[in-house]
Structures are given as structure tokens and as C-alpha cells.
Design brief:
The complex is a heterodimer of chains A (about 290) and B (about 270). Chain A is mainly α and about 290 residues long. In chain A, about 80% of the residues lie in helices and about 0% in strands. Chain A contains ten helices and no strands. In chain A, helix 3 packs antiparallel against helix 8. Chain A starts with 15 loop residues before the first helix and ends in a 14-residue tail after the last helix. Chain B is of the alpha/beta class. Chain B has nine helices and nine strands. In chain B, the strands form two sheets. Chain B has a six-stranded mixed sheet with strand order 5-6-7-3-8-9, sandwiched between helices. In chain B, strands 2-1-4 form a three-stranded antiparallel sheet, with helices on one face. In chain B, helix 3 crosses helix 4, helix 3 packs parallel to helix 5 and helix 7 packs across helix 9. Classes of the chains: A mainly alpha (about 290), B alpha/beta (about 270).
Chain lengths: ~290, ~270
């Protein structure tokens, strides 16, 4: 039987290895950036070598350099497409966030509401959006609204389900404590349930960020000839038909880059919010 | 010894009017488990009462009933004169077995919680909160997050939160059970000091004979399934108590008597 938990406060004895730990952390941080870059360079070099050594024609597999130069030379075509896809993705994500959170709050206010409506949300989620699209195509006139609706349906479910889970997984003792002090329903929601569900919500948001982009791209694909050919996906299809493979690759690179940027922004955002208190976001140095 | 205890009981209950009186209280849960049956208990103002018993004997259920978190299925609970207990009007502090802090809120905001729920502004509450933190020795940690604190410190925050509303009655549900012995002894002393300073009435649930003997003025020994109060032991040691009391013959004797009461209660059932 020893005292294990009493001396957690930072003491002077920690001071000497603080700088050492700081150094280790910095090195770890640098590795995190350098390693993926090395892998990327190796990958691109291998790609380039394979194309050159096997004399693969450009219309089958362009060299990475060509993709890059196409990205620059076709920027005038690609940029508006990127902006269109981004607009739909981000609007869908914003609406999914608002919608998902509001519906989750509504669902958790009463068991009866939750039992009645949650299955509908599940149906909405599990039905492949491609299968629903012909209907949306008929019912919704406006192309922007059409694409937005598709991306929204795909993106909102993870936010809804995660936030619902979060709102319901409040510590029972804390709930009792709020009851004991006569908290109103609003106070319980505002001060207890919403903060407690934050890690769950943010997890859902990160998934939704990727899904909103997927939803936007798939919607453009399915809208096909119905669309006016404005987004990145349309450029991609069009380039495929015309065997303009370098541009196809360039569009593809832009789509993945968009996804990566969304992911990074949401991750930084998540760590900012949870950084101080949640286990998932606390930097414990190089633990691996 | 029992006769003496009963005489003591009459003396004390005559001296101070009861602040809480349970008569014939029973509690049967929805799943059919009978947690309590026929519990009669008076708690005098300023008393430090421990509920001692094996796990599952309904100690915690009594606390939940007294606090109003649950309602009894039989009998009544009366608060100092009033026949109907109204939750919001009673100043009750509750300390759970776990510190039960909000991990996203700093220590200050955790202690502020009961006052915030009452609609008191942060500014108006500030002095009271710092006061509460000071009385548990954590005034320097107001801006720390709970995860940065040790188990004992978290428990202190939990106690400071219960202090924040300046309650008359403090209900504690095995608050130190999860702590190591050194920390527990320290917190025992702090609790006794606060009890003396603030003139609380404390109902303290524990399964430790030694803890109950050290802290209480009266120990209600319980037996389980269904839970009821079997015997009572009075602890006459005056306040303030210190670690010298822990090693005194009186302490050893009271602990022996209490242990005997507990074993006979468990054998009787």
C-alpha cells in the first residue's frame, strides 16, 4: 500500500529533464512532417521512373511533372470548378452541423421523440445517395440546391449519431448533481450535455467533413449531363471522355488536396477545443 | 454497552431538535429489489452521523432519499418542522464517491456550478468560491483542469463545490473510499475541521469501521437485504480530534465495539 496519487503537482524535480523532454517533443514533431514528405517524394520518383522506363504514353499515365504543369496551365478551368465544389462541400458541412446538432438535441429531449425519429435518420443514412438521386433530380429544380441536398444527406448523419450518443453519455453522478441543485432543462443542456458531447460531436464533424466532399463529388457525378458541368467532378469526367488524362489527374489531385485540407482544419479545430481537457487531444509527448 | 448507547441516544435527541427525521422509510426499486425497509432515523442539527454497513445494505439509498434524488416507496422523510420536503429550498451539499467533476471546466468553474445554476453571476460568486477553495487548500489551483490534479485534490474540489452553497446539511457517499490511506487520513482531518468551523450536519456513508469511529459523533450500523438500521454507537470523543485520537485506547475500544455491532448485525440477518 503506497501513496500513489498524492504528488501530482509539478515539482522542481521535473525541471532538469524538461528541456530534454521538450527537445524530444520537437524532434517527434519534425519527424511527423519529414517522414510523410520523404514517402511522397519516393512515391513520385518511382511513378516518374516507371513511366519513363516503360515508355507509358501520356494518355494512359502522365508523368507527375506533367500533372503539375497541367494544374498550373489549366488553372483557369480548374479554379472555378474547385470553388464550386468547395462551396457545395462547405455549405453542406455547415448545414449538416447545424441540422445534425439541432436534431440530436431534439431527439435527446425525450425518449419518445428519439424512438420515433432516429430510425428515419438511419434509413436516410443507409440508403445509397446514388439511389436517391434520380428522385432528387426530379423534385429539385435548382442545381445548386440539388447538389447541396445530396452532400447534406451524406454528411449530416455522423454528426447526428455522434452528438446523440454524446448528449446521452453524460456521467450519471453529474446528472444527479445537476438535479440536486435544481438545474433547469436548458441549464443541463447548456452547461452539462453540450460540453460533455463535444468530443463525440467533433469526432462526427471530422467524419462529416470528408463525407461532405464525397457527397458533393458523387452528386456531381450522378447529376452528370443534368449539371452544367461546373464542379471538379464534372471536369474529371469530361477529361476522361476527352482522354485528357493529365487534366484528369490534376482534378483528382485538387479533390484529394481539398479533402486533406478540410481534415487538417477540422483536426486543428478539434485539438484547440478539446486540448486542455480531453484525453484524445492531450499531447503527452512521444508516447509511442 | 448497548444500553449505554440507548441512554446516550435519548439524551442527545432531547438536546438538539432533529433536522431530518425518517420514519418507517422503505424503498423498493422498479425491478423489485427491496433496498430499505422500516428505517427510522433522526438526525440532530450539528451531528456527524455515519451510516456503516456492508456494500449493498442501502446506505447510499438513504442518502439519495434524503437528498431528494429518489423518493421513498414507504414512510416519510421530514425536514426540520416542515412536513413536505421541497428540494430547492433545502441547502444540501452532496459529495459522491467519485469526485464527479466536469473535465472540461476549470476548478473554479466546477466549484461555481451550484451557484451558476442558481443564477448567481460569476462576479458575485467569486469571493465565495475562492473562500471555498481556500478552505480545502486549493486556492492556487483555481485555473487548473481536473485532469491536472491528483485523486485527493479532485476530491477536495468536490468538497469545495459542496461548500460553495454554504449548505446546512452535507451528504457524503463514501467520498474517500477510492483514495489511498495517507490521502484519506488527511482529508478526514480536513473534513473534521470544516465540520467544526461551519457547524454542519453531516451524514457520511462508509464501509470502514475505523473511518466512521474517527469521524462521527454517532454511527448507525446497518444490515442488508432489505437494508435497515440495526444498532447505533455513540462516539463520545470531543472535538477537535487529531491523529493522537487514532492511536488512543478509547478509539481502539470504540472501534472494537463498532466492529462487534457490525458483525452481530450481519449475523442477525
Amino acid at each position: 500500500m503506497t501513496s500513489v496519487t498524492t504528488q501530482d503537482r509539478p515539482s522542481q524535480t521535473d525541471a532538469p529533464d524538461l528541456s530534454l523532454r521538450e527537445k524530444k517533443r520537437l524532434r517527434d514533431k519534425r519527424l511527423k512532417v519529414i517522414l510523410p514528405i520523404c514517402v511522397l517524394i519516393a512515391f513520385l520518383t518511382a511513378w516518374d521512373l516507371i513511366v519513363v522506363l516503360n515508355e507509358i504514353p501520356t494518355y494512359i499515365l502522365p508523368r507527375p511533372g506533367l500533372v503539375l504543369s497541367t494544374l498550373v496551365s489549366d488553372w483557369a478551368v480548374l479554379m472555378p470548378a474547385l470553388i464550386n465544389t468547395l462551396t457545395i462541400t462547405l455549405s453542406a458541412l455547415a448545414l449538416a452541423t447545424v441540422g445534425g446538432v439541432l436534431i440530436a438535441i431534439a431527439l435527446t429531449q425525450s425518449r419518445i421523440v428519439e424512438y420515433s425519429f432516429f430510425p428515419i435518420a438511419v434509413v436516410l443514412q443507409v440508403t445509397p445517395i446514388v439511389a436517391v438521386f434520380p428522385l432528387i433530380n426530379i423534385y429539385v429544380e435548382n442545381i445548386f440546391a440539388k447538389l447541396l441536398l445530396c452532400a447534406w444527406i451524406v454528411a449530416f448523419f455522423p454528426i447526428l449519431s455522434n452528438t446523440t450518443l454524446g448528449l446521452n453519455s453524460v456521467d450519471h453522478n453529474l446528472r444527479d448533481l445537476y438535479r440536486l441543485y435544481g438545474a433547469s432543462r436548458w441549464q443541463t443542456l447548456r452547461y452539462l450535455q453540450l460540453p460533455a458531447s463535444m468530443p463525440y460531436f467533433l469526432g462526427g464533424l471530422r467524419i462529416a467533413g470528408g463525407l461532405a466532399l464525397i457527397g458533393a463529388v458523387v452528386a456531381e457525378f450522378v447529376a452528370g449531363s443534368a449539371g452544367v458541368g461546373t464542379g471538379l467532378a464534372m471536369r474529371l469526367i469530361e477529361s476522361g471522355y476527352r482522354l485528357n488524362i493529365p487534366r484528369l489527374f490534376a482534378a483528382l489531385v485538387l479533390i484529394s488536396a481539398t479533402g486533406v485540407v478540410i481534415y487538417i482544419i477540422l483536426t486543428v479545430f478539434t485539438n484547440r477545443i478539446l486540448g486542455k481537457w480531453h484525453e484524445s487531444a492531450i499531447n503527452r509527448g512521444s508516447s509511442r | 454497552m448497548l444500553a449505554e448507547a440507548e441512554a446516550g441516544s435519548a439524551r442527545r435527541e432531547g438536546a438538539a431538535p432533529p433536522i431530518i427525521r425518517l420514519s418507517g422509510v422503505g424503498k423498493t426499486f422498479d425491478n423489485g429489489t427491496e433496498a430499505l425497509r422500516g428505517v427510522d432515523l433522526s438526525v440532530a442539527r450539528g451531528e456527524f452521523l455515519s451510516l456503516l454497513g456492508p456494500s449493498g445494505c442501502g446506505k447510499s439509498t438513504i442518502l439519495r432519499l434524503v437528498s431528494g434524488l429518489d423518493v421513498p416507496t414507504a414512510g416519510t422523510i421530514t425536514w426540520s418542522g416542515a412536513t413536505e420536503r421541497v428540494g430547492e429550498e433545502q441547502e444540501v451539499g452532496f459529495v459522491f464517491q467519485e469526485p464527479t467533476l466536469m473535465p472540461w471546466a476549470r476548478v473554479f468553474d466546477n466549484v461555481y456550478l451550484p451557484l451558476r445554476l442558481k443564477g448567481i453571476s460569476r462576479k458575485a460568486a467569486k469571493d465565495g468560491i475562492m473562500d471555498a477553495l481556500e478552505s480545502v487548500g486549493l486556492e492556487d489551483f483555481a485555473h487548473a483542469f481536473p485532469r491536472e490534479l491528483s485523486g485527493g485534490m479532485k476530491m477536495r474540489v468536490s468538497i469545495a463545490r459542496a461548500l460553495a452553497t454554504d449548505p446546512e446539511v452535507l451528504l457524503m457517499d463514501e467520498p474517500f473510499a477510492a483514495l489511498d490511506e495517507i490521502t484519506r487520513f488527511k482529508l478526514n482531518d480536513d473534513l473534521l475541521r470544516l465540520w467544526a468551523e461551519r457547524e454542519w450536519t453531516v451524514i457520511f456513508v462508509t464501509h470502514s469501521v475505523f473511518e466512521s469511529v474517527y469521524l462521527s459523533t454517532r454511527i448507525a450500523v446497518m444490515t442488508g437485504r432489505p437494508g435497515r438500521i440495526d444498532q447505533q454507537v455513540f462516539v463520545d470523543e470531543p472535538s477537535p480530534r487529531s491523529s493522537a485520537y487514532r492511536t488512543s485506547p478509547q478509539y481502539a475500544e470504540t472501534a472494537r465495539n463498532t466492529s462487534a455491532a457490525l458483525s452481530s448485525a450481519m449475523a442477525a440477518r
